Automatic annotation (TrEMBL):
Pfam families found in the cross-reference section: Mo-co_dimer, Oxidored_molyb
Residue span, Moybdenum cofactor oxidoreductase dimerisation domain: 322-435
Protein name per its UniProtKB record: Molybdopterin containing oxidoreductase
Domain of life: Bacteria
Length: 436
């Protein structure tokens, strides 16, 4: 993977300007104000790389001197240029210009924590163990990472990891949850062993229907008896060739905040099923009932509902694959140009499906022009697309992008389908262009 790292280096040295978001608004790269709450001090410990023994005593609203006296903006070690949404748990999205690289660089990979990340100093890949168990496992056992590497064949796949709530900010009426814009998505090459090989080695009983994961992170409420999040997938998805237990991302150990040293990666499904800091996998004889499998979390109305409608838990069904979606990664919204010809490009993906066609419009969707669409590196990878558009005269334009999947399902042009938690938001991405 040596050569491939070069792509990211070259890209990092020459990024597009990072001062506008997808709506052409100026981006405040890191809001310090977001980190002033008393509760955030505890979360900071994992960021400054050291414990704060007296964090409880520090008055709310005081910035630790380490940050107050430095000009360096607040950031998570190993991450660059992310937009922070929340500090407790840490959530940060990737500005769209960093999704322009063929694969998302490790330092630009978004972060979605549900609890406190395990302390970095406690994460030792030599000592890390993964337990396989559950009532439908024939021979429960534990592996070190070295044992996984020795016993099973290693595979590398490019896999899209997209938070189910990505683009929630577009949902009308607004719903609860992180107001992600478009950057809670990444695609890159994960290296590890097939989940299938490991599960089959441990023996899958006939009654198995689901798997579930457990990670090493801890709950914000301090309750040690419950997981922060413990989700899973049906056996059919778990046994797909591309479902991995991974230790590397883009040829490097997985970044700390993205699940170092071991992570489950289930391409094309809600990223919530890709368990970070992976400690245990259970083979279940029923739909996994771990944390955030029930209630309203990661669930969609079983039947479509009207915007704003309340849906009782029993009418909600578990969310599975993600849906067709595309982004324009170049140029950034807000471009002013004297050139009437413009090259646009981006990425498209479609959960378990592939993207069949990519279309762009410069007249608010009245007419569409077919874009060039590349094949994915493998199933569940995103696909690169590009197009050259011509503007008839000076003025204000928007470039809209619309992907169609292999079943003929298109992104909606304006409003994504409403659901109580604002998942699967996939309306067309658009950028503003002024031709002068
Ligand atoms: N152990 C653990 N795994 C987890 C989570 C978590 O909080 N803890 N968050 C999930 C959710 S909701 C998402 S969107 C992805 C985010 O992955 P990332 O932080 O590497 O971007 O991880 C998933 N796996
Ligand atoms: Mo998520």
């Amino acid at each position: 993977m040596k050569k491939q790292k070069g792509i990211h280096q070259a890209y990092a040295e020459n990024p597009q300007k990072a001062d506008l978001d997808i709506f052409g608004r100026e981006v405040d790269p890191i809001s310090r104000r977001g980190f002033l709450r008393k509760s955030s001090l505890l979360a900071m410990a994992s960021i400054i790389g050291s414990n704060i023994p007296f964090a409880e005593n520090m008055p709310g609203g005081v910035i630790p001197a380490l940050f107050a006296n430095s000009d360096t903006p607040f950031s998570v070690a190993g991450k660059d240029g992310l937009i922070y949404l929340n500090d407790k748990p840490i959530t940060a999205e990737t500005p769209v210009q960093y999704l322009d690289a063929p694969f998302t660089a490790p330092n630009h990979f978004f972060i979605r924590n549900n609890g406190n990340a395990p302390e970095e100093a406690t994460l030792d890949p030599k000592k890390w163990t993964l337990e396989i168990g559950g009532e439908s496992c024939k021979k429960p056992q534990t592996f070190t990472i070295d044992e996984l590497k020795k016993k099973f064949k290693t595979y590398t796949y490019a896999l899209v990891v997209e938070c189910a709530g990505n683009s929630r900010a577009e949902i009308v009426p607004a719903t609860k949850g992180n107001q992600w814009k478009i950057g809670a998505v990444a695609c890159g090459r994960w290296t590890g062993v097939r989940l299938k090989d490991v599960l089959e080695y441990c023996g899958i009983k006939k009654d198995a229907v689901y798997i579930g994961y457990y990670g090493a992170d801890t709950r914000l409420d301090g309750n040690a008896d419950k997981a922060t999040i413990s989700r899973g997938v049906p056996m059919s998805k778990a046994l797909e060739e591309e479902s991995l237990i991974a230790w590397d991302y883009e040829g490097e150990p997985i970044p700390y905040m993205n699940g170092y040293p071991l992570r489950l990666v289930i391409g094309g499904w809600s990223a919530s099923v890709s368990g970070k800091w992976l400690k245990k996998i259970v083979i279940r004889n029923k739909v996994h009932d771990g944390e955030k499998m029930n209630g309203q979390s990661y669930r969609m109305p079983c039947k479509p509902v009207a915007p704003g409608e309340q849906v009782p838990d029993e009418n909600m069904c578990v969310l599975e694959g993600m849906v067709v979606k595309s982004i324009i990664t170049h140029p950034l919204s807000g471009l002013k140009t004297s050139n009437k010809t413009l090259d646009v490009r981006g990425k498209a993906w479609a959960g378990d499906r592939s993207v069949k066609e990519m279309w762009v419009s410069i007249d608010f969707g009245a007419t569409w022009q077919k874009a060039k669409l590349n094949k994915p590196l493998n199933r569940f990878s995103w696909q690169e697309w590009s197009a050259t558009v011509k503007f008839p005269q000076e003025g204000y334009y928007e470039v809209w992008a619309r992907a169609v999947d292999d079943k003929g399902v298109s992104q909606p042009m304006v409003l994504p389908g409403w659901n109580p938690r604002g998942y699967l938001s996939n309306s067309c991405h658009r950028i503003a262009v002024r031709v002068i």
